[in-house]
Design a protein that fits this description.
By secondary structure, the chain is of the alpha/beta class. It contains eight helices and nine strands.
C-alpha cells in the first residue's frame, strides 16, 4: 500500500513537471508575454506603454530595450523580485530609471551643476551620486551611492513619463555573473518564464560595442569616464582618474630634476665651505 502511494506521488510530480514544461514551451512559442514593438504604429506603441505601466504598478517585472542592452525593471518597492530572478547578491546595488535629469537631485546629493547632468542625459551613461535621505532606505541597503539612467530609448522614457513620481529599479536582463550581456530577447530566453512582460524592440546593435553596457560616470567622488563623455566632463572642470594620475606623474617628473639640481648646488656649496679654510691656512 505504501509503495503504491509513493508511486502515485511520484507520478503526480512527474505530471506536474511535464505540464509546467508544456505550458512554458507554449508560452515561449506563442509569445503570450512578449510584445513586439513597431515604432511606426503609434496606437500599438501607446498601448504597449500603457500595458507596461499597468504591469509595473501591479508589482510586475518587465524587460525593455535600452540604448545599450536589454534591461529588467520594476518599481523600487518590488526590487527584491529582481534579485530573486537574477540570482543577484543582495549587496550588489541596482540602478534607477528616471524621467528627467532634474530628478537626480531629488534623491541624491548635489555635487555637480545641473548643466552637466543635462549634457550627459539622455544617453548610454550611468551617473553615480551619493544618495540623499529622500531615497527609500530599504533600496540598495548599505550602499551610500546610487546610479541613475535616462537611456536614449523611446520606450523606457515613455514609461518614465507616465510614472513621474515613481522610481523604477533597473538592471541588465541576465542572470547575475553571466558573461553574456543581452542585445536581443533570445539572449535571456531562460528568464522569459519569470518575466511578466517582455518588450521586443529587436536587436539593439550588431557590432563589437553592442555588449559593453552603459558607461559609468562616478560623480560622487573623483571618478573616470570613457571617451564619449570625457569631453563634456572637461567643460565642467572634471578629470578622469587616468588624467589625474598622469598629471601627478608629470608633476613629480618636473620636480625631480629641480630637487636633484638643488642637491648638487648644496653639495658644491658644502665642498667650497670645506675647502676655503684650508686655502686660508695655506696663505698664512
Amino acid at each position: 500500500m505504501l509503495k503504491r502511494s509513493l508511486q502515485y506521488f511520484v507520478d503526480l510530480r512527474g505530471i506536474y513537471k511535464l505540464e509546467k514544461l508544456r505550458l512554458r514551451r507554449k508560452r515561449m512559442g506563442t509569445g503570450s508575454n512578449i510584445v513586439k514593438l513597431n515604432p511606426l504604429d503609434n496606437a500599438a506603441w501607446f498601448k504597449a506603454v500603457q500595458d507596461a505601466v499597468k504591469c509595473l504598478k501591479s508589482g510586475g517585472i518587465i524587460a525593455v530595450p535600452t540604448d545599450t542592452l536589454y534591461g529588467l525593471c520594476t518599481l523600487i518597492e518590488n526590487s527584491d523580485r529582481l534579485y530573486k530572478l537574477k540570482k543577484r547578491p543582495n549587496g550588489k546595488p541596482l540602478g534607477i530609471f528616471i524621467n528627467d535629469g532634474e530628478d537626480v537631485f531629488s534623491y541624491a546629493e548635489r555635487s555637480v551643476p545641473n548643466g552637466l547632468v543635462k549634457s550627459l542625459f539622455p544617453g548610454p551613461v550611468t551617473l553615480i551620486f551619493n544618495r540623499s535621505e529622500k531615497l527609500p532606505s530599504n533600496f540598495n541597503c548599505g550602499t551610500q551611492s546610487v546610479g541613475f539612467r535616462i537611456p536614449q530609448a523611446r520606450f523606457v522614457r515613455d514609461i518614465c513619463r507616465f510614472l513621474p513620481y515613481r522610481l523604477i529599479a533597473q538592471t541588465s536582463a541576465n542572470v547575475s555573473g553571466t558573461d553574456l550581456n543581452p542585445i536581443c530577447i533570445e539572449d535571456f530566453q531562460e528568464l522569459w518564464d519569470e518575466i511578466d512582460m517582455i518588450i521586443d524592440g529587436g536587436t539593439i546593435l550588431e557590432n563589437n560595442m553592442s555588449r559593453l553596457g552603459s558607461t559609468v560616470v562616478d560623480l560622487s567622488l573623483p571618478g573616470h569616464a570613457e571617451q564619449e563623455t570625457i569631453n563634456t566632463l572637461h567643460e565642467y572642470g572634471l578629470k578622469s582618474v587616468d588624467e589625474i594620475q598622469r598629471e601627478k606623474i608629470e608633476a613629480k617628473d618636473k620636480i625631480k630634476p629641480m630637487i636633484e639640481n638643488e642637491e648638487e648646488r648644496n653639495n658644491e656649496i658644502e665642498e667650497m665651505s670645506t675647502d676655503r679654510p684650508e686655502r686660508l691656512v695655506g696663505n698664512n
